[in-house]
TrEMBL record:
GO terms for biological process: autophagy; endosomal transport; regulation of autophagosome maturation; vacuolar transport. This is C-type lectin domain family 16, member A. It comes from Seminavis robusta. Keywords: Autophagy. GO terms for cellular component: Golgi apparatus; late endosome. Residues 177-334 form the FPL domain. InterPro entries: CLEC16A/TT9 (IPR039272), CLEC16A/TT9_N (IPR019155).
C-alpha cells in the first residue's frame, strides 16, 4: 500500500511541471485510442461517458490534482481502478449504431450526396434518435480535439524533460523515456496524419484503420495545428525535425488537402488557415536549412510548393487576403533558395511556373477592371474615391510581389512572365487607350455632375495603370518592352490587332507556348524591323500624344502626363533609350536603324544646310507645347489647376532631358539656344498670360480690396518654413531665407498615387470673380517659379560649357557621368523678394531686440490689462510707458528704455491691418496676426493714448500709411511679376553666341 501511495501521490500533489511528463503523454495517448475507436460494439453505449468528464471539469481545473480530472489521471496508474473506470460511468444508450454512423457522416469535412445544399455541407436531422446521435458524435469530436491539442503541448514542451520517482532508499533514478521518444515509439505522428487524411474515397483502408469515420473539420484542423506546432518547434533540435519529416508523413498530410473541391465550404473556412500555417512553418524550416530539401520531396514531386500554388491560385484565396499573401510568400521564398537542388527543381517545374505566371496576369487584369468599374459614374463621389484609393494600394502590393518573383532569377520564368504580361494584360490596357467612338472626349470642369462614361473611364484607368507599372516595377526588360509598346513610333501587329484576352489575334491564334511578343518588341527596339512592311504606325503613341495635346479634354491629360514623366524620371531608361523612343531628340546624323557612317562621325551633330534650325523638337514636346498655348483659359476649376501643375512638372522634366540630349550630341546649349525651344517659350508665354490675367482681375470691384490678401494667402500656402543653413537658401544681403517650396511636391510626382485623378472627393466652389482671381494668382506664381527654375538651369548649363571649354575638352557625355549629374535641375523654389514681400515672410525682429527710435514716427500710448479680455500674465504693467512706432511698411509697439531705444513687444505689417477705429482715447485695430500676449487677442488690438485728438491722428496716419503701402505694393507687384523681364535681361556669352550664329547661319 505504501508503494501504491508513493506512485499516486505525485499525481495528486504535483505542480504544472507534471503536465509535460511522459506519464501524462501515455494517458493522453490511451485516451485518444479509446476516443477514436468508434468501430467498437459498445460505441452506442458511450453516449455521455466522455462528455461527463468534460462537463465536470471547468476552466483550468485540469491541472488541479484534487479535481475529478486529476483524480482520474492518478487512478489511471492503478490497474484495478483503471480497468473498471469506463464501466462505472453513466451512459445514455442509443437505439442503433446506424444513427451514430449517419451523424459522423453529416459532420464529416468532405462533401457527400446525402448532405443538403449545393456544396453538400448542410444536413437536416429531424427525428430524436438522429439528434441524440449527432450530439453524441459532437461530444466525441470535442474530446478528440482536446486530446490532440494536449498531446501537441506535451510533446513540444516536454520533449527535454525527465521525471524522477523516489524509492525507499532515497535514491533518485532518471526516466530515460522522454516525451518525444514515446511520441516516436508509438508513431503518433502517423496516427494524427491518418486522422486528417481519412476521406470517403479510401473506405477499403478504413476497415483496417483504428477508426472508421471521416472526422469533422474541427478534428482535422486541430491535427494541422498540432503538426504545425511540431514543425515550428523542430528547429530547436535537428534530430527532432529529421524524424518529423521522415516517412513522408508531413508530405502525406499536405497532399491530402488537395484538391480543395472535395471539402465543403464550412470545412474550408476551418481547414485552410491552419493548413497554410503548416505550409508557412515548413517553408521557414526549408529556408533555414535547405539541406533538408530531399525530405520535402516525394517521388520527384514537391508537395509544399504544389500545395501553396494550388491554394494561392484558388478561388478561395481571392476572398481571403491572409491565405493569398502567405501562399505567395511561401512560393517566392522557396524560389529564392539558392541551393542547386531547389533551383533545379523549380526550373524544371514548367507547369507550376506557367500556372503562377497566369495567376499574376489574371490578378493584374482583375484589378484593372475593378478600378475601371469603380471609376464609372459621377466624377465626384467620396465613397468611390476611397474605394479607388484602396484598389490602388492593393495594386501596389501585387506589383511588389511581382517584383519579388522577377528577382528570384529562375531561368525561363522571367521571359515567360514578360510574354504573358504583354499578351494578357498590357495588350488589353493599350487597346483601351483608343478614343471612344460614341464620345470623342469628356471635358470636366465647372459641371461636377457629369457622369464619366465607361469607355472614357477605361482610357483614364489605362493611363493610371501604365503609370503604376512604370513607377513600381523593377524589372528593366519588362519596363523597356512596355515603353517600346507605348512610345515607339512603330508597333507590331501582335499588339495593334489584339482582339481579346485569350491570345487570339486577327490573323490567327497564338499558341500559349510560343514567345511572340517579346521577340517582336525586341526587334523594334533594336531597329531590326524598321524596314519590315509588317510594322504599323503605333496607334497607342498617337492616342497618348492626342491626350497630351488636350484633344480629349483636361480630365485625361493629368494621368497621361504622369505616364510620360514616370518614363522621363525612371532610372531604367537612359538617354539612348529615350532617343530610340523619340521622347527626346535623336542625334542629327543617326539613321533610323541607329547606324552612323564615318562621314557623319566627323560632322558636328548640329544643323546643316538641310536643317532650318539647330534643334528639332519631338512630337511629345510639340503636344505639350500645344496644350500650354491652346488650353482654354476660361475653364477655371480644380481640374484645370491640376492640369497646369502636371503640365509644368512634365515640362521641366522634358526640357531637362532634351537639353542633356542635345548636349550629348556635342552642342553647347546656353540661354540663347534654350529660349528658342518651343516648350521653353510656351512656359514663359503661359506665365505672361496668367500674370496679365492676375493684374486685370485686380480691377474687378469684388477683388480690388482683397487682391493683396489673395496674393498673400496663395504665397503663404505655397512656401513653408524650412530649417537649413545651405548657402543657396539666402537672398541678397538678407539673412538665411527660411521659406521655400519644392516643385516635386506639386504635379505629377504627388498625383501619381492619388485617386483624385479618377474620382474626385470634393466639389469645386461656385464660379465667382474672387475664385477667378485666386486661380490666376496661383497660376501666375506657379509658372513664375517654373521660369525661375529654368533660368537657373540655363545658368548652370552655361557655366558647365564654360568650364569644359576652359579644359579644352570636346568629349561627349553619356548621360550617366559626373558632369551630367551636376546638371540636375534644381527643383527647390526659394522665397525671393516677391514672396517675402507679398507673403509677409520676411525676417522679423525678435521681440527681445531693441529698436532705434531716432528718425521714426512715434506716438506715446498706454496699455491697461483690465480693459483687454483674456489678458496674459506676461502683459506689461499699467505704469509701463509704450510707444507706437509707424514705419513705411510696418508698425511696432515698443516699451521705452531710454531716449532713443525701445524694446520690441510686437511687429505688424501695415498690409495686415484690416480696419482701424477710434473711440475717444482708445484705438481699435483688426489685424491678421498671431496672438501676442494681451496686445493681440483673436485678431484684435486695443491701445490707449493720452487724449482723443492723438488717437484720431494716429488712426488717420495709419489709414494713410496703409493705403500708401497698398498702392506701392500693387505697383511693386506689377514690377516683380511682370512677364518676360528675367529672360530678356540675360544674354549668352559672346563666344558662344558667335559660335552658334556661325553654326545656324545667323552670322
Amino acid at each position: 500500500m505504501a508503494q501504491l501511495l508513493n506512485i499516486t501521490m505525485p499525481s495528486f500533489l504535483g505542480t504544472n511541471r507534471n503536465r509535460y511528463t511522459p506519464e501524462r503523454l501515455k494517458c493522453l495517448y490511451s485516451d485518444l485510442l479509446y476516443a477514436i475507436d468508434v468501430s467498437r460494439e459498445d460505441l452506442s453505449r458511450r453516449g455521455r461517458v466522455e462528455d461527463e468528464w468534460e462537463d465536470v471539469i471547468k476552466g483550468n481545473n485540469n491541472d488541479n490534482p484534487l479535481s475529478l480530472h486529476g483524480l482520474r489521471r492518478s487512478l489511471a496508474t492503478l490497474p484495478i481502478i483503471g480497468r473498471h473506470r469506463r464501466r462505472t460511468s453513466p451512459v445514455i444508450r442509443l437505439n442503433s449504431r446506424k444513427g451514430l454512423d449517419l451523424a459522423f457522416r453529416f459532420l464529416a469535412a468532405t462533401k457527400a450526396p446525402d448532405k443538403e445544399g449545393d456544396n453538400g455541407g448542410a444536413a437536416a436531422l429531424r427525428d430524436d434518435d438522429s439528434v441524440m446521435a449527432l450530439n453524441a458524435a459532437k461530444r466525441i469530436e470535442r474530446r478528440v480535439v482536446a486530446i490532440i491539442r494536449e498531446i501537441g503541448e506535451v510533446v513540444v514542451n516536454g520533449g527535454n524533460t525527465v521525471s524522477t520517482n523516489s524509492t525507499n532508499n532515497g535514491n533518485r533514478m532518471e526516466n530515460l523515456t522522454s516525451c518525444f521518444e514515446y511520441f516516436c515509439e508509438k508513431n503518433m505522428l502517423s496516427l494524427l496524419v491518418d486522422i486528417a487524411k481519412q476521406n470517403p474515397g479510401n473506405q477499403a483502408k478504413a476497415a483496417s484503420a483504428r477508426h472508421g469515420v471521416v472526422w469533422s473539420p474541427l478534428v482535422k484542423a486541430q491535427v494541422m495545428q498540432t503538426v504545425s506546432l511540431l514543425v515550428a518547434s523542430g528547429g530547436r533540435n535537428p534530430h527532432t525535425l529529421f524524424y518529423i519529416l521522415s516517412q513522408n508523413a508531413i508530405n502525406d498530410l499536405i497532399s491530402c488537402m488537395l484538391p480543395l473541391h472535395q471539402w465543403t465550404d464550412p470545412a474550408l473556412e476551418k481547414l485552410v488557415h491552419p493548413f497554410v500555417d503548416v505550409l508557412k512553418n515548413m517553408g521557414l524550416q526549408l529556408a533555414g536549412t535547405p539541406d533538408l530539401f530531399p525530405f520535402f520531396t516525394r517521388r520527384d514531386t514537391f508537395p509544399l510548393f504544389h500545395a501553396a500554388l494550388e491554394i494561392g491560385t484558388s478561388a478561395y484565396a481571392q476572398t481571403d487576403s491572409f491565405v493569398h499573401i502567405n501562399c505567395l510568400s511561401i512560393i517566392v521564398n522557396t524560389m529564392k533558395i539558392t541551393t542547386p537542388q531547389v533551383q533545379a527543381w523549380v526550373s524544371s517545374a514548367i507547369p507550376e511556373l506557367r500556372k503562377l505566371s497566369n495567376h499574376f496576369c489574371q490578378l493584374l487584369l482583375n484589378r484593372y477592371y475593378r478600378i475601371a468599374d469603380l471609376t464609372t459614374g459621377p466624377v465626384v463621389d467620396p465613397l468611390r474615391n476611397s474605394a479607388v484609393e484602396a484598389q490602388l494600394l492593393a495594386l501596389h502590393d501585387q506589383i511588389h510581389v511581382l517584383n519579388d518573383v522577377f528577382s528570384c532569377g529562375i531561368p525561363g520564368l522571367n521571359v515567360r512572365l514578360c510574354e504573358l504580361l504583354m499578351r494578357r494584360v498590357v495588350s488589353v490596357v493599350l487597346q483601351n487607350l483608343e478614343p471612344p467612338r460614341e464620345r470623342a472626349f469628356i471635358s470636366v470642369g465647372l459641371c461636377d455632375l457629369d457622369v464619366t462614361p465607361q469607355r472614357e473611364c477605361l482610357a483614364q484607368v489605362s493611363c493610371m495603370f501604365l503609370a503604376q507599372l512604370f513607377h513600381h516595377v523593377d524589372y528593366l526588360p519588362f519596363l523597356r518592352m512596355l515603353a517600346v509598346a507605348l512610345f515607339h513610333p512603330k508597333s507590331t501587329p501582335l499588339l495593334v490587332n489584339h482582339s481579346d484576352r485569350q491570345g487570339k489575334l486577327a490573323f490567327g491564334p497564338v499558341n500559349e507556348e510560343d514567345y511572340v511578343f517579346v521577340p517582336a518588341l525586341d526587334a523594334i527596339a533594336q531597329g531590326k524591323g524598321a524596314k519590315n512592311d509588317t510594322l504599323l504606325d503605333n496607334p497607342f503613341r498617337r492616342s497618348l500624344l492626342q491626350t497630351l495635346r488636350g484633344d480629349f479634354g483636361e480630365w485625361r491629360f493629368s494621368v497621361a502626363a504622369i505616364v510620360v514623366e514616370s518614363v522621363l524620371e525612371s532610372e531604367a531608361f537612359d538617354m539612348e533609350t529615350l532617343q530610340i523612343l523619340e521622347i527626346v531628340p535623336r542625334r542629327k546624323k543617326d539613321h533610323p536603324d541607329g547606324a552612323d557612317t564615318d562621314k557623319e562621325e566627323k560632322t558636328e551633330a548640329v544643323g546643316t544646310a538641310e536643317d532650318s534650325c539647330w534643334y528639332q523638337p519631338t512630337e511629345v514636346e510639340h503636344a505639350l507645347t500645344h496644350f500650354l498655348l491652346e488650353m482654354p483659359k476660361s475653364m477655371l476649376s480644380s481640374v484645370s489647376k491640376t492640369c497646369l501643375e502636371c503640365a509644368g512638372s512634365i515640362a521641366l522634366s522634358l526640357l531637362h532631358k532634351c537639353a542633356l540630349s542635345v548636349t550629348d550630341n556635342g552642342v553647347e546649349v546656353g540661354p540663347f539656344q534654350l529660349a528658342s525651344m518651343p516648350l521653353w517659350q510656351a512656359i514663359f508665354q503661359t506665365k505672361a498670360t496668367y500674370c496679365k490675367e492676375a493684374l486685370e482681375s485686380q480691377r474687378t470691384l469684388e477683388v480690388s480690396d482683397i487682391f493683396l490678401e489673395l496674393a498673400e494667402f496663395a504665397i503663404c500656402n505655397r512656401y513653408k518654413k524650412v530649417a537649413s543653413s545651405s548657402e543657396r537658401l539666402t537672398f541678397g544681403s538678407q539673412p538665411t531665407a527660411t521659406y521655400a517650396c519644392h516643385l516635386s511636391q506639386m504635379g505629377c510626382p504627388v498625383l501619381a498615387e492619388s485617386a483624385e485623378l479618377l474620382v474626385r472627393k470634393f466639389r469645386f466652389l461656385n464660379y465667382t470673380d474672387v475664385e477667378e482671381a485666386r486661380f490666376h494668382i496661383e497660376s501666375a506664381i506657379h509658372f513664375r517659379a517654373l521660369c525661375k527654375t529654368l533660368v537657373a538651369f540655363s545658368e548652370k548649363l552655361d557655366n558647365h560649357h564654360a568650364k569644359r571649354q576652359a579644359r579644352g575638352g570636346t568629349e561627349r557625355s553619356n548621360g550617366n557621368d559626373r558632369s551630367s549629374a551636376d546638371l540636375a535641375m534644381d527643383m527647390l523654389d526659394v522665397a525671393d523678394e516677391f514672396a517675402l514681400t507679398f507673403g509677409g515672410l520676411g525676417s522679423r525682429p525678435d521681440a527681445r531686440m531693441d529698436l532705434d527710435l531716432r528718425g521714426r514716427m512715434t506716438f506715446s500710448c498706454f496699455l491697461s490689462t483690465a480693459t483687454v479680455s483674456g489678458a496674459m500674465p506676461t502683459a506689461p504693467p499699467e505704469t509701463s510707458k509704450l510707444s507706437l512706432v509707424v514705419d513705411p511698411t510696418d508698425f511696432y509697439v515698443v516699451r521705452e528704455r531710454g531716449v532713443s531705444l525701445g524694446g520690441i513687444l510686437c511687429r505688424v505689417g501695415l498690409q495686415k491691418v484690416i480696419a482701424a477705429a477710434s473711440d475717444g482715447q482708445w484705438l481699435h485695430l483688426a489685424v491678421r496676426h498671431q496672438d501676442v500676449g494681451c496686445l493681440i487677442k483673436n485678431g484684435n488690438m486695443i491701445l490707449q493714448f493720452e487724449n482723443a485728438g492723438t488717437c484720431l491722428i494716429v488712426r488717420e496716419y495709419l489709414d494713410r500709411s496703409r493705403n500708401t503701402v497698398r498702392r506701392e505694393l500693387m505697383e511693386r507687384f506689377r514690377t516683380l511679376i511682370e512677364p518676360d523681364t528675367v529672360l530678356e535681361q540675360r544674354q549668352p556669352r559672346a563666344p558662344v553666341r558667335e559660335e552658334m550664329a556661325d553654326k545656324v547661319g545667323l552670322a
